[in-house]
Amino acid sequence: MKSILSSDLSVINLGLVRFAEPLQDMGTPVAACQWQPPAEGNPEIGWKLAELVNHPKVEEANKIAFERYLASTPVLEGIATAADVIPAMQGKKLILHSGPPIAWADMCGPQKGAVCGAAVLEGWAATTEEAATLVEKGEIAIDSCNHHNAVGPMAGITSPSMPVWVVRDTVNGNTTFSNMNEGLGKVLRFGANSDEVLHRLRWMRDVLAPVLKATLAHMEPLELKPLIAQAMHMGDECHNRNVAATSLLFRKLVPVALRHGVASPKELDEAFAFIAGNDHFFLNLSMAACKAMLNAAAGVPGSSMVTVMARNGIKFGIQLSAFPGRWFQADAPYVEGLFFPGYSQADAARDLGDSAITETCGIGGFAMAAAPAIVQFVGGTSDDALNNTISMKQITLGINGNFTLPMLNFTGTPAGIDARLVADTGIRPVINTGIAHKDAGVGQIGAGVTWAPMPCFTAAIEALYEEVCK
Length: 470
What we know:
CATH architecture of one domain: Alpha-Beta Complex
Helix content: 25-40%
Strand order of the largest sheet: 6-8-7-3-9
Radius of gyration: 23 Å
Structural class: alpha+beta
CATH class of one domain: Alpha Beta
Number of helices: 17
Largest sheet: 5 strands, mixed
Number of strands: 18
Distance between the termini: 45 Å
């Protein structure tokens, strides 16, 4: 002790910075290390977490789940009418929504507005008011997209007559679906349901989808991982920035459509002008591809790998590989970001949509280092974009070498969220996303960044402990 007290000290301080201040005042070098108790300081969950760390069954299960995810090869097979490929919709008045399942009475404003708009689109109601009454009576059913291997951004709405992308994993055989992207602003997925919105959706169903379906019929199934990877080298992160990915898709579609004359010149002009003017067009394809990759990892007993993150504007839900179809939920957070002129946080709905499947898959917010320009849309700085990616490495099982980051010396994106690491470190998965107005019928009012709520992960830890350690 005498030698320690009489020698020059260099101190590492764990936890509260205040402990280091007296030493710093005396000129002692102190390296501060941020630390907080695991599981937000809950000793019971902390003990269960400790039992799961380095548990042989969990480690082996995670290895299997992560390898299946990496091996997945999603391809675009074509476009179909939702009712033709989603069995539960056949002959039924069913509308799918984003996030965990939720009762109509509990739905947020934009999701209600989107459901009502879809009901009018289907011809089940003449007005949105009539549509609301029919849903209240149970004459129109609602369910989570994720229960049907589907995903949808923001409100997530998919109804029977809507066209959907059909994506198949050629390695594991699972098929996933996503609706088509309408663009930004006053669109159904943000809760808008005016005549203008419904007219656009009818045109997408009657003109755009047939043009693309006929074009894809003349192509081999399109591998989506290489396209996403190339787009990331061009400045996309394939959630809120899809400029490059949409352009790459455009380049593949147009020559084939023109060569085979798949539609009239007027229809071709309208269809490809729409895609060229919609930088987010690829988003829904990106989501379906990510859903397919994560479905490959689902269903491994004992795995703590997160395979779903989704929000319905009221609740945020996750699923683990160990528990396919089982939701662990918490209140959905608000989004911090940039608002369109005339709007503020007071106007915003809570976090909404299935598009966090991109972050769950290791792109989107996890790949913001590839897309520093994203901050012009969601706020923050280019340093924030880089740091978000770096911090996600602390809560993931590994990296995805298929998706590399030029800004980080072409290392792969952090991927395979481990619920144990989230609870242990206190680092929550980052998500960049759009912001919908809290009321139905208004639409998008901004975009920003948010973080998955911790209670989802601590609840998942408790369930995993019961399965593995009891």
